[in-house]
Every structure is written in structure tokens, then in C-alpha cells.
Design goal:
single chain, alpha/beta, eight-stranded mixed sheet, elongated
């Protein structure tokens, strides 16, 4: 199983090349390996360049060499016809003899691929690298299971959790390296969301620094305040959707209708705290600059916790440093 896991980890790494480029589809990576253990072909899904799923991308590269080979894929191959044909049939037609996948497809429309492949005489092994692959594909899996996109709450704050000083100044709480990392994160998501108050107060552009017309994340603005007609979010750098509501059920339905998988929430504490209360946030990504204010605007509003027993516990996923700044990612369990 060790060699199986190594090939699956390669497939997972490939799948992550599709982050921010596959919605409404999942990110998927595939590796085709010959009987001697050599890699014949690799592929990942990228809707911005071609409609083909990862399996088909790899099979087209492999050609006749796929016959008798083993395929590793991060998600159970689809068994339905959408904008493309079923990957199961492509795998059968190519002569793949063994199919190893990490995560079962929870989408009832496309699931059942493993059974179809087994019925065709292909050996199927499931669950290899499941935890790692599920984490990589957590945005799409959340959307299918919860009926709304995965939402990462991004915060830049001082060590004592302030996002602005008493006089309202907030620019450059974190250093240049941290801000550069935020641009990478923005490029990996499908949408960037704020509240109307953030647009009115800060006039953000909400596109990655290396903005690419036609390929930038969707901009989403939530709230009922009237927005300035000349706001930067209405320029041509990216499409913008305004959800004129404070009702979280309405917001969730509108977000699902966009088709996006992963949203980066960059709002102030009012909208973020409301969504936190409403169990609509999945991940907290906080960049902490090496400074203290002691007074100022907190990044989260009052959660009603009167004692430590009422505190919201969030398991830490990762931590890294950018000079004196610390970036930590926490899983919001909504329990």
C-alpha cells in the first residue's frame, strides 16, 4: 500500500492545480502507472482550459499505453453524462485494469462509478489517501453535503485581535510577505465576499494583485445598504454579485446558485460574526501582525460567551510564519 499512497499523493498534488479553476466541478487529479511502476501520464481538471475531467486528460496523454495500466484518481470517477461523457466509460474503453481512488463521490447525480468499473472487470481499490484527498477537495465536498459553498473567513489582525485602531486606521497591520500570501489565497478561491459596509468604508477592489480579466474570482457583496455607483467592485476586472439581504438562508441559497465551491470572506466583524453564529463559516484563516493596540476594533463581535465553558473551540489545521507575522488556519466545527 505504500507505493499506492505515493502515487495518490502525487494525484492530490496535481488536483490542487485546479483550485479556483473548476467550479462548479470538484478539483481532481489522476496518475496512470505502467506495470513496471513508471508513470505513463498525469492530468488534472481545469475548466478554464478544457472541459475534460482529470481522468480523460491523463488518458489522452497516455494513448495506447493506458491498456493494462493502473490509474490513481483522487475522486471516484463520475458515472453520468454532463458537459462531458462519463469517465467510467473512458476508463473502460482505454483498457485500464486497476482503478485506485481516494474519496467516494457523494453527489447522487454522478456516483456509482466504482460499481460500473467493477462490473466491467476492472479491479477497484478505494480509500487510499482518503483523508488527505478529502481535505484538498473540502470546498466541493462541503457544497455537495451542506448545500452551500465552503467559506474561509480571512482576517488580518494584531496580536490582540484588533483589525483597526480607535481612529479607524487599519492599513498594513500585517507585513508585505503576509499580504503577498493573501494574493495567492485569493487566486485559489472561486469568489471573494464582503459586506456592504466594507464597500462603503474601504472601496476594496476584491481581485488578486495579478488581476486577469475573465479569470478573476467572482466578487460578492452582501447587505442592504446602498452602494456607491462608482465603487471599484463594479468595474470590469471581475463579475460582481450583490445579495441585498441579511437573511442567512437567503444568502446561503444565493451563494449556492452561483455554482462556486470556495468563498473567501474578507468582511468586517458584523457580517462575519453573523455568519459564524449561523454556522455558515468553515475555516478561519488569520494573519497576525507583530503588534499590540490594546484598544480598537475587534475582528469578531460578541459571541455571547460568558465563561470559558462557552468558548468556541477551533482545531488548528496549520501554522506558518512570514517574517514576524504568523498565519494560522483553524477548522470551524459548527458544533
Amino acid at each position: 500500500m505504500t507505493h499506492h499512497l505515493a502515487f495518490m499523493q502525487r494525484a492530490i498534488a496535481l488536483s490542487e492545480n485546479g483550485c479556483g479553476r473548476t467550479a462548479p466541478n470538484p478539483i481532481v487529479g489522476a496518475v496512470i502507472v505502467a506495470t513496471d511502476g513508471s508513470v505513463i501520464a498525469e492530468g488534472f481538471h481545469d475548466r478554464l482550459t478544457a472541459p475534460d475531467h482529470a481522468e480523460v486528460v491523463a488518458l489522452k496523454i497516455a494513448g495506447d499505453k493506458a491498456r493494462g495500466a493502473t490509474m490513481y484518481v483522487t475522486l471516484e470517477p463520475c458515472n453520468h453524462t454532463g458537459t462531458t461523457g462519463p469517465c467510467t466509460q473512458a476508463i473502460i474503453d482505454a483498457g485500464i485494469t486497476t482503478l485506485i481512488y481516494a474519496v467516494a463521490d457523494p453527489n447522487p447525480v454522478a456516483s456509482g462509478g466504482a460499481s460500473v468499473l467493477k462490473a466491467a472487470g476492472i479491479e477497484v481499490v478505494e480509500g487510499v489517501g482518503q483523508e488527505e484527498a478529502a481535505y484538498a477537495n473540502r470546498a466541493w465536498l462541503t457544497k455537495i453535503i451542506k448545500g452551500r459553498p465552503f467559506i474561509t473567513w480571512k482576517v488580518a489582525a494584531t496580536l490582540d485581535g484588533k483589525v483597526a485602531a480607535m481612529d479607524g486606521t487599519s492599513k498594513w497591520i500585517t507585513n508585505e510577505a503576509s499580504r503577498a500570501d493573501v494574493q495567492k489565497v485569493r487566486r485559489s478561491v472561486d469568489a471573494i465576499m464582503v459586506g456592504t459596509q466594507t464597500v462603503i468604508a474601504d472601496d476594496p477592489h476584491l481581485v488578486p494583485r495579478d488581476a486577469k480579466v475573465g479569470a478573476n474570482p467572482l466578487r460578492i457583496v452582501c447587505g442592504t445598504q446602498e452602494l456607491p455607483k462608482g465603487a471599484q467592485v463594479f468595474d470590469s476586472a471581475a463579475p460582481t454579485k450583490v445579495i441585498a439581504s441579511k437573511d442567512l438562508e437567503v444568502i446561503a441559497a444565493e451563494l449556492l446558485a452561483t455554482g462556486v465551491n470556495h468563498i473567501l470572506l474578507e468582511s468586517g466583524p458584523t457580517l462575519a460574526s453573523a455568519m459564524l453564529h449561523g454556522c455558515m463559516l468553515d475555516e478561519l484563516m488569520i494573519y497576525q501582525g507583530a503588534s499590540l493596540l490594546g484598544a480598537g476594533k475587534n475582528f469578531v463581535a460578541d459571541l455571547g460567551a460568558l465563561t470559558l465553558d462557552h468558548a468556541m473551540s477551533m482545531p488548528r489545521v496549520s501554522t506558518e510564519t512570514f517574517g514576524d507575522d504568523v498565519k494560522s488556519v483553524y477548522r470551524i466545527t459548527n458544533e
